[in-house]
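Hi support team,

I've been running sequence recovery on a batch of backbones for a student project. Most finish fine, but this one hangs at about 90% for roughly twenty minutes before it completes. I'm not sure whether the input is malformed or the queue is just slow. I've pasted the structure tokens below so you can try to reproduce it. Let me know if you need the job ID as well.

Thanks,
M.K.
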């Protein structure tokens, strides 16, 4: 194990994936999670694209994740009055292209799999109830201070603590205190134009096959529903009257009122929101943050996932980009600490710059796709309405757009360059980044 140590802040899916990736790179870590449990029933599902199924295969986790997953195959689209205007097998095209379509898994199952498959000595490095209050930064190392008085020393801090990242805020403060004229992101870096309710329902109705993705489109509102093998996940979207950076805490009453206004929206051919929402077993509501931060690192601190970029959930690209961040960062970081060396701050800064540069093109493309899907489904402008209702709903044209714009980008996705593995996914298009061989 290399003497270089990273303090991971955040024990969600990206943070726990980082623990696996760093261990396989031979890099020591401590993980800090502010909540009292890793596995919370939050009502959300995660879509894992084929590019990251390859990554989890390298980590030895793919088969375990697939035990809980369902490959998305068919997509149907409705108007608010129940008219079916789209029936697409576009995800079968994705599967034929890359060896699998996206696989949807309950978020709690993803976290459970990631945590349970850490060895006991690695679990001992993961700490609950650790709310970060400050970070001390020197030329030689870092120290993360927690609100309970404990502290953790390391050579680097990795902020995997989500859209409202405490690490990002502390990093900003440190950067501006060192250079008040430095160009830096605003404290609230993400903008919200939509809000959403997300909830899960247990079981599966006999009329809804696993692998179905339904969407209902309307002006300023939309619905999405994904059906897994034994669980379904729904999203109700509403455009805000004005864009905001405010982090709003919604109540159960707010949730019920929005669901009531959308009660007659179809979820499938046979079910409406009013039929499914009362069956929820877990739910949440919040404004949907969007944006890509300009500043991903400073000194010995770096950000990954939602801490440095946040997407709406409609296209299912958020977690996938967080995983790709980790691959890009770990590949360059492992090389920098090879031979039991401890790179100084200047070397780490170059590592972080290389990591960000590697990610920009594919990340920005996915950010644009995610934003466009949200706005097409909510008919935000006449052009988005035309695209959603009359262009993308034409199956041959949808396939052409997929293969012209999405497929070439997915092919370029990264894998760990230090974990030898057989290729688990083969399709009509070869992966540009091959699996390393032993």
């Amino acid at each position: 194990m290399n003497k270089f140590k990273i303090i991971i802040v955040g024990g969600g899916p990206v943070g726990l994936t980082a623990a696996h990736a760093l261990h396989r790179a031979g890099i020591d870590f401590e993980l800090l999670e502010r909540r009292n449990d890793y596995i919370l029933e939050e009502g959300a599902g995660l879509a894992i694209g084929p590019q990251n199924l390859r990554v989890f295969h390298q980590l030895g986790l793919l088969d375990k994740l697939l035990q809980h997953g369902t490959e998305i195959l068919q997509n149907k689209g409705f108007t608010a009055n129940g008219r079916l205007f789209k029936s697409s097998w576009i995800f079968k095209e994705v599967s034929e292209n890359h060896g699998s379509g996206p696989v949807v898994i309950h978020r709690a199952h993803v976290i459970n799999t990631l945590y349970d498959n850490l060895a006991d000595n690695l679990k001992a490095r993961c700490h609950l109830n650790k709310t970060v209050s400050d970070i001390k930064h020197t030329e030689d190392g870092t120290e993360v201070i927690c609100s309970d008085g404990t502290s953790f020393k390391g050579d680097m801090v990795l902020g995997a603590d989500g859209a409202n990242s405490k690490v990002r805020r502390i990093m900003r403060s440190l950067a501006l205190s060192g250079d008040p004229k430095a160009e830096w992101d605003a404290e609230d870096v993400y903008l919200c134009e939509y809000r959403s309710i997300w909830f899960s329902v247990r079981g599966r109705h006999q009329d809804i096959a696993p692998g179905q993705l339904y969407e209902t489109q309307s002006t300023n509102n939309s619905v999405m529903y994904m059906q897994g093998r034994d669980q379904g996940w729904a999203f109700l979207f509403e455009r805000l009257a004005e864009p905001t950076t405010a982090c709003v805490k919604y109540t159960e009453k707010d949730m019920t009122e929005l669901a009531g206004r959308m009660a007659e929206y179809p979820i499938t051919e046979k079910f409406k929101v009013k039929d499914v929402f009362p069956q929820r077993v877990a739910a949440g509501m919040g404004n949907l943050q969007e944006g890509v931060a300009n500043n991903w690192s400073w000194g010995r601190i770096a950000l990954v996932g939602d801490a440095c970029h946040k997407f709406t959930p409609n296209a299912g690209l958020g977690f996938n980009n967080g995983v790709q961040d980790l691959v890009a960062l770990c590949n360059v970081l492992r090389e920098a600490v090879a031979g039991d060396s401890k790179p100084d701050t200047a070397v780490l800064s170059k590592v972080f710059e290389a990591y960000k540069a590697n990610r920009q093109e594919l990340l920005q493309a996915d950010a644009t796709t995610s934003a466009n899907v949200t706005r097409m489904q909510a008919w935000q402008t006449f052009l988005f309405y035309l695209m959603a209702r009359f262009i993308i709903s034409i199956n041959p044209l949808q396939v052409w757009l997929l293969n012209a714009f999405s497929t070439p980008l997915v092919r370029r996705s990264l894998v760990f360059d230090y974990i030898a593995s057989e290729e688990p996914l083969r399709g009509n298009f070869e992966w540009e980044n091959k699996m390393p061989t032993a």
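--
Follow-up from support: It reproduced on our side and the slowdown came from queue contention, not your input. The mean pLDDT is 96. No action needed from you.
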